[in-house]
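re: ur question from earlier - yeah i can do the single chain one, its not a big deal. heres the input i used so u can compare w yours
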Amino acid sequence: MSGTVRWGVLATGGIATTFAEDLRSMPDTEVVAVASRTDASAQAFAERFGIPRAYGSWAALAADDEVDVVYVATPHSAHREAAALCLEAGKHVLCEKAFTLNAREADELVKLARDRGLFLMEAMWTYCNPVIRRMTELVRDGAIGEIRTVQADFGLAGPFGPEHRLRDRALGGGALLDLGVYPVSFAQLLLGEPDRVQADAVLSPEGVDLHTAMLLGWSEAGASALLNCSLVADTPQTAAVTGTKGRIEFPRGFFYPERFVLHRPGHEPEEFTAGTGGLRGMQFEQAEVVRALRAGETESPLVPLDGSLAVMRTLDAVRDRIGVRYAADGITQG
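and the output i got, formated as tokens:
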């Protein structure tokens, strides 16, 4: 693919707004179409960002021949439907996290993209962040030895009322899929898929998790991860990786970091940053999609599909332990 990469934005909520704002200053890219379930919402979004075409249906966006890649920004509950619609229409797709409601849906999307030879990526912007990439390089090069523990948390105090999407089980609500996906993805970036999953949670009357604590284990590596997510507590939102020769600590906002500190016995603490190349926020993942499309790649090495599938399997295992079920699981709860 050469020339300007033409984006379509599917959905018009807060995350889609941030995406469109960040894309404005990206070179050789533009949003050419937006879709919502209503004409009014699509038109308002298009007017705000100067987007030439607005559609009141997802299918119309998927059928637009002038769209190269679609950013799916719906709630989790619609990720599979929206992404599959676009893939079936021959569009490349960047799909928000959590990738889908469960691993089965994620596997269906991955198989569809691979069968069609189309690009598909979960919008895990953390993996594309240059500071995170620098951290993984140091860990890979043995800077802290063998990893033994990972700690990470992401909690918001709210309050989120019963009517909020985060409390709506029909929309895939709960702390785990919206916030817990970050600590889990962080741990699995470093250690891969765990072979042991333990979890405890406090559930809302609607049947979604208000707070979840996870203990993941990797038998062969001799490592464990203690992770938390919450809709009722403003947690530190920090992360730490401890190895046999040192540790790495991230300050608040570990999922979009600007720095981290390396601690090693006998050495002064070392602070690491990384060049941003003038990019910010979601632009790191946008740049990776554009790079991959121009290189003719159908998967990103930074956010591999097998990794996204592995994270979804872990999230499924956690939900199984805490008793959170969605209609897409084929099991309902009272």
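The chain is about 35% helix and 25% strand. not sure if urs matches, ping me
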